[in-house]
Amino acid sequence: MLSGKTVVLGITGGIAAYKAADLASKLVQTGARVDVIMTAAAREFITPLTFRNITGRPVVTTMWELASEFSVEHVALAEAADVIAIAPATANTIARLAAGIADDMLTCTVLATLAPVVIAPAMNDNMWQNRVTQENVARLKERGFVFVPPAYGRLASGKTGTGRLADIPVILGTIRQVLGRNGDLAGRRIVVTAGGTREAIDPVRFIGNRSSGKMGFALAEAARDRGASVTLITAPVALPDPAGMEVVHVESVTEMKDAVAAATAGADALIMAAAPADYVAKDVAGQKIKKGRDELSVPLVPAPDILGEVSGSFIRVGFSAETENLLQNALEKLQRKHLDLMVANDVTAADSGFGADTNRVTLIGRDGQAEELPLMTKHEVANRVLDRVVGLLAAQK
What we know:
CATH superfamily of the largest domain: CoaB-like
Structural class: alpha/beta
Number of domains: 2
Radius of gyration: 25 Å
Strand order of the largest sheet: 12-11-8-13-16-17-19-20
Strand content: 15-25%
Helix content: 25-40%
Shape: globular
CATH topology of the largest domain: Rossmann fold
């Protein structure tokens, strides 16, 4: 989504300016062209040379620098931008933008651009909560500016409060979401599930599986980047919540079933990438089961079948993690659950099993035709799955 895009990164004067170097690096790694504009105050905290080395591009620091390719016509950078991101943004810069002041290269560029603008504030907590700052933020939001709210934590002053620059993945995810607004899933509601459920045996122990949630998270992020309104329903995983979507946390298969039923009302597609339990304890002990027994027997009963039981007219995509008879088992599941698409993979393979960053899958359509994909990153697999979802949605018309 960011490959080939021009991102203008504005950096203003605050201690969090050093974090912008990481953001610039992450943007470059996605294939984006990054043009950095630094205010005079920003240069007191970090040097332009840092960003020149990261981006391989000249850093714009003034409107009067004759050597700059943007010095004669400062609107050139505004016109070249696919998105402008200001991180960190100080209270002063936010106030100047709200007032329409254009007295340096950054504010001139913002005033001259038709591209979306993403603002990630960072400042003292009292400054952020000040009524004037909040009014300026509200005014800019009304004009279409997108804000990435500051985070809660330890501030440069030593205090703890809300004012820290948001985490870089959150800022990056918001930029992706903004750029994908007009994608091929714009206006669509997509529900994605992820992770392996935990089914209690007693208040301490549970039955689980090895699902990492990475495939489901990749699908949710890819759908967001293509313009969809995404609800991600996730069992416990060791992954941060993605930006730009509703995230619902559940633990058990029953909780996931209820969340799916609620989220799919009016949805266009459900992508069931989670690994909900097939069996749950018949009776959950009220207290911790103590050690000392020669044997422990826990009777299990079938768990609810979420895909098989949820109702609605949306596209249904299932995942089939198999250890043998991949195509046979996946096709049987597709037909039994009346799915539109099945994504099957052999989880015994080291490069496509649980926890891997890559996957090798076979896509099986409702006509039974199978398409075997080569080894890909999970984000690449996600987009191939979404390509099929786009086609299925188009066929409904």
